[in-house]
Each structure stands twice: as structure tokens, then as C-alpha cells.
Amino acid sequence: MTAARPVFYVSDGTGITAETIGHSLLTQFTGTRFATDRIPFVDTVDKARSVAARIRAAGEAAGLRPVIVSSCVDAELIQALGESGALVLDVFAPYIAPMEQELGLKRMPQVGQAHGIVDFDTYHRRINAMNYALTHDDGMRLDYAEADLILVGVSRAGKTPTCVYLALHYGIRAANYPLTDDDLDSDRLPAKLQAYRRKLFGLTIDPERLQQIRQERRPNSRYSQLETCRREVAQAEAMFQVERIPVLSTTHASIEEIASRVLESLGINREMF
Amino acid sequence: MTAARPVFYVSDGTGITAETIGHSLLTQFTGTRFATDRIPFVDTVDKARSVAARIRAAGEAAGLRPVIVSSCVDAELIQALGESGALVLDVFAPYIAPMEQELGLKRMPQVGQAHGIVDFDTYHRRINAMNYALTHDDGMRLDYAEADLILVGVSRAGKTPTCVYLALHYGIRAANYPLTDDDLDSDRLPAKLQAYRRKLFGLTIDPERLQQIRQERRPNSRYSQLETCRREVAQAEAMFQVERIPVLSTTHASIEEIASRVLESLGINREMF
Question: Which residues contact A21 (CB under 8 A, 6 or more apart)?
Fold first, then answer.
């Protein structure tokens, strides 16, 4: 087996931008093994030089030229990273010139700005949304007047992680309501949700997959029997259809995709944090 | 006041990669007003054409040429987006040729792969980490044997959002322990944390900022008095110092930055979801 190609996400900030684009790029080269590492907060030439030495050594150990995906803004830092002998992919460089030309002004290179220091309002909005998601998780509180949206579905259909993701990344007040046996035995919307119809979005899931998830949580219980999962999912889907609640299957979707599709369906447009 | 320049993050998948890099790019052009919009799941030429028409209209309405930041992989889609007349910045194009040359193979364009379909193990790891964070939030459960790390600090120092972020994006089992009055009156580590010293990381915060956050939560309480905040923060910081717990101030940091710095300090290297 050949060695994995060393890939480093290097940044003057958190490295999230570099890792996001780098990861997307690597997924397009399936069949190649990569060993990835994130090196954040490289904000001086001295640090960049020492990182370059470390990357050079990793390349020598692997017997393969390393790749650096860099989101460092300062040209001096990028030059210092070049001393590693790695292939350096600069996340911003290709776009600066066309943007400067289009806007008719020079960019202001500000180190580590994208995910760095934040103003109080932004922080506050995220934290408040997060508190909202946690206090309105799993039907704990049913006062949905302030909710931006309410996810509805059977237990373990993916509601909680989606709500938390929406809160963290979009500052959205997302509540979630688990359909209980009582709710499912009727094919109508639970009375307590009727006032919030336009905020509702249904999550469903393949019963076999649901069974697998529940089995991990409460092994060999009635809750995790395939028959229970099949019945609950069928009842929930019938209700979504009768009540015309938009619905998405989470079976093969990532949390990011579920979140994106919910926002698109409900027509909510918020900038991402 | 001039109109805001329309910027569209267009993607065949969730649009997270396009928005992440686009947002980072825009932060370098301070002083320009942008109106941003995310258009995900543009995965056919027909959809791309209709998106192009919408973007052309937005540019005409604003009287400014729009900017598209595209993470569409398929060249036909990108060409269709070009019909909008916008400046199209292609998130992957500049890096494909150098990567292909370096690796000696052609990329496999797979639509919407980065944040799309996921395997069961990946989903499971994230969900389990998330459950862990929620059940070990705020000192609710003190069985830390399985924790990857434990954040320690006074109430409202930023522990919960950081734990949830670490779970969601790194699959890390992050617990958090709030320092109570009893804990703070001693300057030593609480007994229940002593077995987990190497997993501990302290969060601190400027007392004025803490007061502002607590005031929102429980207005005009003893809890939110500046004097209370000052005392608690001073006691916590003294304890971190005596016990040599690594510590970070969250006052001006984003959740992403806190998370990155915690991982760096504890030497935890995980690929990001």
C-alpha cells in the first residue's frame, strides 16, 4: 500500500475556510489516500517558517510532495509556507484580482477575519438561538410563538441535530416536536401544533435505518423493533400527507443537507455564521 | 446610499462550501455593501438556467453586476450560470489542474459530494457525540470516562455552544462542568474533576461582558450583578492558574475560534465534518 499524501489546511485564523474548500476538493479525487491535518492561527512569518519545516518533514516521511491548502491572507506568510516545497493552493488568490477589478477597489487584507472576532450582537443571536433549540428540544416546551420553524417527526428521525445546526449556523429558533403514540394514532395534526402550521416541517426516515439507530440507543426494546419503526413511520408519513406538511427523508442525508433543504422549503434566507 | 451588490452562492449541493469561501472573500472588501443569497441544489442545466435568469434580474434591479460564487462541479452548469451576465467565481476551477498534475490523475466530478450523502458510521459518530454533549451539558452527568474533553468555567462563559459545535463538526465527546459557588470558594479543582485533569480546558470571560450576557438571561438578579461576575471570574481564573489548567478568554472569540483553540491546546486532531 502506498503512503497517504500529506495535506495541510493552514490558516491565519481557525482554518475552517481552508478545510472546507480543501475537503471539497479532495472528495473529487477518489481513490487517492490523503492524510489531512489542520494548522490554525499561523499569523506570523516565524510561525509560517516553522510550519513549513514541519510540512517538509511530513512530505519526506511519506515520500510524497505535500499539499498545502492555505487561507492565509498575508503574502509574506504564503511565501514562507512555500519553503516547505509543498504544492501550495491559495484559497483566495484566484478571486482577489477579478473582485478588485469588478468593485474598483483594493481588498483590505485582514488576518483571520472570517471566523475570528465577533461583535456582541452576532454572538448573542447564535447563543439565544442555541438556548432556544435546547429548551424546545423533544417537545420539552410547547410555546412556539417565537419559533422560526418546528421540526416534526418520530423519535430519532434527525430532529435534534438539525435544530442545533440551524441555531448554530443560521441563528434560527428551531424547535422540535416528537410524534408520540397518541399523536400517531390519529392521522391529524396534534392540536397543539395547529396554530403553527406554516412553521412545520416533517422529517421521515427509512424504517430499517430507524431501527438500526434506535437499536443502538435502547437495544432489544419494543421501541427499537422493526415492526414499531415501520408502524410509526407509516403513520407519520400518512399524517404529513393528509395535513400537507412538507417532508424530507433523512435516511441518506447529512445534517447540512437536511438543514439546507428545510430552509429552502420554508423560504427562510439567512446568512450563515 | 448606493444599492448593495447582489452576491449569490450557487451550488449543486448545500452551498456551504461556496458560502464559506464567498463570505471569507467578501470580508476582505470592507466598505462595500453586499446582498447575499444562497441557492442550493442547482443540479441540472434547466435549474441553472432559471437561476441565471433570476440573478440577471437581481443585477438589473440593483443596477450593479452581480457576483456568483459557484461550487458547481459540472462545467455545463457553470456555463449556464454565465448566462446571467454575473462575474462568476468558480470555487474549484483554479485548483483542479494543479491537483491533477500533482497526483497524476483526473478528478472525478461528483455532484454535491462534500456535504451530501453520508455513510451510517459518520452520521452515527456525529449523533452520538451530540447526544453526549447534551446529556453531559452543565454538569448534568459527571461520568467523564468517555469524554474526549471537559470544558470548565463559570456559568455563561461559552461552554455549551462550544461543546455542541465540537460534537457536530468534529464528532468529539465534549462535556462541560459549571463552577458553582462551592467549587469557587476553594481555589483547588473540584474533587470530581481530579481524575480527568488532562481532559480539562478552562473558559474565562471579561466580567463586564459576562454581566451583559447574564443580564439578558436573568435581569437584575444577584447572578447578573457585576460584582458577582467579577468575583466568580477572579476565583475561576485563580483556580485555573493554581491547577495549571489551560485557559482561554471567550470575550472576543467566535464559537469556531474557541473550538479551534481548545483542540489545538489539547492536541486533538480530527477531520472536520
Answer: A69, A91, B17, B20, B21, B91
